[in-house]
């Protein structure tokens, strides 16, 4: 049994997976903020999983953790996990001590990319994939030749901070008009303020109902999401771009809207038409715990498992 833990801004989600990579037990807990709360939530979920599995935590074959922020996978150190109010934390070391077992730490988007690849590569084909996380922020994880590509310094796939509009809003990173500011949950929050618990669903419904402002905001959002996917295909030539994160819970309507944008572009550009962008996008199935499953798999020797 391998265990993966996805530490998110509000929830910590732990899964135990069997030899085929299928989740057999799952546990959820609130995360809280600050190092102590984050550690406590991770230990709590893994301990509860151990009870469910009927074995002590140190008997798990491997334990992996996905967390937002800058992760040094060799040391297990996390830095700049802003949403969790963590400047720096020896997450791997601290958890290993508490759980009595080595713990592999991975950036959460990279973990989700690997989980998505393991789930979908059989149906989508190819040995390369970009996972585009459309959450509050925007970032991509890359799987090349079946392995996670983190980059020379761990920054691969940080396309959310490519400026696309010199006159756009100031980004949290200090630049102006980053892709993240126009193709993410924060873009929707700025352009379509609402108290609705699922703002993007409400936006798409309002657009379908013919509200002009909603149509305009939706069109811009979808165009920018399509741009992000095009960017990933043009830079990495990955076989597939898989959408995940909060906005991807739209499912098929998001894919349809993005494919319409691709079709518009292809009509003007034989070059883009030749890339077959509409055939190269997919959406992560709702509720699949990609980051937790990916965290469980990426730390171990995956070929042994699958
Ligand atoms: Zn930025």
Structure keywords:
globular; binds zinc ion; 41% helix; 306 residues
Alpha plus pi helix count: 11
Give Rg in angstroms: 19 Å
Which segments are poorly predicted (pLDDT under 50) over 5 or more consecutive residues? 301-306
- Biggest sheet statistics: 5 strands, mixed
Strand order of the largest sheet: 3-2-1-4-8
Counting helices, strands and paired strands, the structural category is: alpha/beta
Provide the helix percentage: 40-55%
Q: What is the H/E string?
A: EEEHEEEEHEHEEEHHHHEHHEHH
Characterize the structure shown.
This protein has 306 residues and is an alpha/beta fold. Helices cover 41% and strands 22% of the residues. The protein has helices spanning 35-53, 91-99, 108-124, 179-182, 185-191, 199-208, 212-236, 252-268, 270-274, 290-298, 302-305; strands at residues 2-7, 11-17, 23-30, 62-67, 70-72, 77-81, 86-89, 103-107, 129-134, 138-144, 147-149, 240-244, 281-283. A five-stranded mixed sheet has the order 3-2-1-4-8. β1 and β2 (11-17) form a beta hairpin. α1 packs across α2, α3 packs across α10 and α6 crosses α7. It is globular and about 60 Å long. 43% of the residues are buried.
What is shown here, in short?
The protein has eleven helices and 13 strands. Helices cover 41% and strands 22% of the residues.
Topology of this structure?
Layout: E1 2-7, E2 11-17, E3 23-30, H1 35-53, E4 62-67, E5 70-72, E6 77-81, E7 86-89, H2 91-99, E8 103-107, H3 108-124, E9 129-134, E10 138-144, E11 147-149, H4 179-182, H5 185-191, H6 199-208, H7 212-236, E12 240-244, H8 252-268, H9 270-274, E13 281-283, H10 290-298, H11 302-305
Parallel strand pairs: 1-4, 4-8, 9-12, 12-13
Antiparallel strand pairs: 1-2, 2-3, 5-6, 6-7, 9-10, 10-11
Helix pairs in contact: 1-2, 3-10, 6-7, 7-8
Zinc ion (ZN) binds next to loops.
């Amino acid at each position: 049994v391998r265990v993966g833990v996805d530490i998110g801004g509000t929830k910590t989600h732990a899964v135990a997976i069997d030899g085929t990579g299928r989740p057999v037990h799952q546990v959820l807990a609130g995360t809280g903020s600050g190092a102590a709360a984050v550690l406590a939530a991770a230990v709590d979920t893994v301990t509860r999983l151990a009870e469910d599995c009927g074995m002590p935590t140190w008997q798990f074959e491997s334990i992996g953790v996905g967390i937002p922020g800058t992760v040094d996978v060799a040391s297990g150190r996390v830095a700049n996990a802003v949403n969790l109010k963590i400047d720096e934390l020896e997450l791997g070391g601290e958890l290993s001590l508490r759980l009595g077992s080595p713990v592999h730490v991975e950036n959460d988007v990279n973990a989700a990319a690997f989980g998505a690849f393991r789930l979908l590569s059989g149906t989508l084909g190819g040995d390369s994939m970009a996972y585009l996380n459309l959450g509050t922020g925007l970032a991509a994880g890359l799987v090349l030749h079946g392995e996670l590509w983190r980059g020379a310094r761990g920054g691969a796939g940080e396309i959310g901070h490519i400026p696309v509009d010199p006159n756009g809003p100031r980004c949290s990173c200090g630049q102006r008009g980053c892709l993240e500011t126009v193709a993410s949950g924060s873009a929707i929050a700025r352009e379509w303020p609402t108290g609705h618990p699922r703002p993007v669903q409400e936006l798409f419904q309002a657009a379908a109902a013919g509200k002009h402002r909603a149509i305009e905001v939706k069109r811009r959002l979808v165009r920018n999401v399509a741009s992000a996917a095009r960017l990933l295909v043009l830079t990495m030539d990955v076989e597939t771009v898989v959408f995940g994160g909060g906005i991807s819970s739209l499912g098929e309507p998001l894919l349809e809207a993005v494919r319409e944008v691709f079709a518009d572009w292809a009509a003007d550009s034989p070059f883009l038409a030749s890339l077959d962008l509409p055939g190269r996008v997919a959406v992560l199935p709702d509720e699949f715990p990609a980051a937790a499953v990916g965290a469980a798999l990426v730390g171990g020797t995956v070929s042994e498992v699958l």
